[in-house]
Design goal:
Elements (H helix, E strand, L loop, with lengths): L4 E5 L6 H14 L8 E5 L17 E4 L16 H5 L5 E4 L2 H6 L4 H13 L3 E6 L3 H5 L3 H13 L4 H4 L3 E4 L13 H19 L1 H5 L3 E4 L7 H5 L6 E4 L6 H8 L5
Parallel strand pairs: 1-2, 1-8, 2-3, 3-4, 4-5, 5-6, 6-7, 7-8
């Protein structure tokens, strides 16, 4: 059975003091409550080496990106082995902001996925279409190609470790959200594409998250869809009081 996951992508937010306080706040909000999902927190990487392991009994931690290189003269880069030497168990790869602002394409992203897997990290691999691709009707093909080009070199065993995250670019940070039916349509198609390559069992066990202005108000409807296994949450993850209702959406 595939995992339900609610993941927080803090992006470039929070000072060290603010971030450590937020981790404590999220941890405390889960006191006496057992979520029906894994709670994954992905802060800026400089937090990861300072996070107390006591938090790991309720929370899983991850990074927001990793280098496609293992080590070397790559100033400013952070490698997957560096991330794996902390409490982190996962890493976001291929977020639309990395694709747009850092020109990350499928060839580079495939290398990052390989680095993450080699280091023992679970890649949270992001895919999604732009507004013009949604409007011209090519969105299914666009997302399928993103999955195939960066991931279909993997063995069955390695692909089974991938977490997918569908984020319609037009809904990230805009306040717009794909309807639950739109999300379900895309998630079902992604699962179909995976099944065609890796078989139905691996596809059925693949966790596919929805991202894109997901919040407490719309999470229950989104998560009720059969192929939506949780969320990759941006802005609503920056306050524990806004994040908790999304986690609790799996109680409904």
């Amino acid at each position: 059975m595939r995992k339900h996951i609610v993941a927080a992508n803090w992006k470039m937010n929070k000072t060290f003091q603010e971030g450590m306080a937020l981790i404590e706040d999220v941890y405390k909000t889960l006191d006496g409550y057992k979520p029906n999902c894994e709670v994954l927190i992905c802060p800026p990487s400089y937090f990861l080496g300072a996070i107390d392991k006591k938090y790991c009994d309720k929370l899983t931690f991850g990074a927001q990106d990793c280098s496609e290189h293992t080590s070397g003269a790559y100033t400013g880069e952070i490698s997957a082995p560096m991330i794996a030497s902390t409490v982190a168990k996962a890493v976001i790869i291929g977020h639309s902001e990395r694709r747009a602002y850092h020109n990350e394409g499928s060839e580079m992203l495939a290398k990052k996925v390989d680095q993450a897997l080699e280091a023992g990290l679970r890649p949270v691999f992001c895919v999604g279409e732009k507004l013009d691709q949604r409007e011209d009707g090519t969105y299914m093909e666009v997302v399928a190609k993103q999955v195939k080009d960066a991931l279909f070199h993997l063995s069955d065993k390695d692909f089974a470790k991938i977490i997918l995250a569908y984020e319609p670019v037009w809904a990230i940070g805009t306040g717009k959200t794909a309807s639950a039916d739109q999300a379900q349509e895309m998630h079902a198609n992604i699962r179909k594409v995976v099944a065609e390559k890796y078989g139905q069992e691996i596809a059925d066990n693949c966790t596919i998250l929805y991202g894109g202005s997901c919040k407490g108000e719309n999470a229950p409807e989104l998560f009720a869809k059969p192929d939506v296994d949780g969320g990759l949450i941006g802005g609503a993850s920056l306050e524990a009081s806004k994040f908790l209702p999304i986690i609790k959406a799996f109680d409904k």
